[in-house]
């Protein structure tokens, strides 16, 4: 399209002047695209293909032996109780964390947007956004001391309220929820900012019309705010789901998948299989399944989001 | 909204303030714990406030650990990655937006497709490739795979497409070369987008944990987040030391954020980038 307009505009110019420019253009394209494409090739395209290839081998990087095993790695997964458990834990984590995240962030965004004084509004937004910029690894370390059984903040607080201390990170009933709590603290700021932007883009006149019609607050929220936020909602839920599927640092640092694999999410399990146990073939097969899960979940979300949007 | 309910507004405000205080609690905990003395921790401290403020933790971090080195490693890698990503994204974005060549569409779709791939899926081959290149345990291994960004190329293409063709043609007729055109005309027009991309690229590489964890194991080569975790492993008991390190790492991040806050928020809502 752009070429058409370009040549159209150049009609009046003598071909003799145009040609060298065109040639330089070609040279420019190839010279500048080559290194960029080389990097994409080596560190993006090649690894994807390699990963798929590796998934049909039994490969140990230490001995350097690669044995073709066909679909064995995939079949092995079906009978691997740790893998199945980690699949379950991953879904549990993603579903709970995403739902709680969206509910909390939407409520906070609505509340912040109602604040009338400008500086207070931006102060609140800043407070909630602040944790998102710190390294998650650092946050995980600070939170593990807060969860510590003997001297951690949470047990100090429980003690103050005369309640029994809790093994936050090593009780199978609490561990996953503790990690979810930390994860939410660390990144609700993003979605709050995105929701506020979504709320800001709703034209004031819809609200005015609804108020004239005597609609209640709840009806205004349910029938005007929520439907008009659908685009923000779709974007936020897709990106949050994808990023929570990949949550790694908090699990690797805070729980290492313990107790009883209750917090062994797939991202951690793949990492440990590949780099602690040197089962790179099997880990690649799990990575392929991981990719498929994320793709399918994303497509489903887009599909559901689309149909509801048209309604 | 005209019809305002005073009680409800007050209640919402109260809940919001309580939530905001809860958000601040971990920072308070971090700072107060960093001020506890070794003695207090060994004797079993069970309080929120330190009994007596002490700077022992900070002294241990600054004297016993190569703290400056870690900051340096993170700064160098993040700056190189950010500068390179901005350059390669703008360049490739310009070519995809304003030039035509064979296989352009397919190539662009391929680059877009890599955006969907989680790092966990490609980390094993990326490790093997980096090892083949002989870069294990070198800062170059952090930099090299991150010099290009598919999302950056996508963003740059979107924004450069909006630049009128006439403007570029006029500059070309004045004899401007392609590179000059990019630096002088295109870059200033997409500055907002570039600064957003720059902020988030820098932040992501500064905060990156998984890739350094895989590829670096030498204490002196570590970047900040990895070093903090490693340090945590060696000072398990004296959490005042670890908290001091955490404070020292968090403070500059917060300062930088407060300075660039507007661009941060604008960039986030403009690009949806995390």
Helix/strand/pairing category of chain B: mainly alpha
> What is the alpha-carbon Rg of chain B in Å?
24 Å
Question: What is the multimeric organization of the chains shown?
Answer: heterodimer
H/E order of the elements of chain A?
A: HHEEHHHHHHHHHHHH
Order of helices and strands of chain B: HHHHHHHHHHHHHHH
Return residue spans of chain A where pLDDT drops below 50 for at least 5 consecutive residues: 1-20
What would you note in describing this structure?
The complex is a heterodimer of chains A (311) and B (274). With 311 residues, chain A is mostly helical. Chain A is 74% helix and 3% strand. Chain A has a two-stranded antiparallel ribbon with strand order 1-2. Chain A is globular and about 75 Å long. Chain B has 274 residues and is mainly α. Chain B is 74% helix and 0% strand. Chain B starts with 5 loop residues before the first helix and ends with a helix. Classes of the chains: A mainly alpha (311), B mainly alpha (274).
Question: What structural keywords apply?
Answer:
heterodimer, A: 311 residues, 14 helices, globular, disordered N terminus, B: 274 residues, mainly alpha, 0% strand
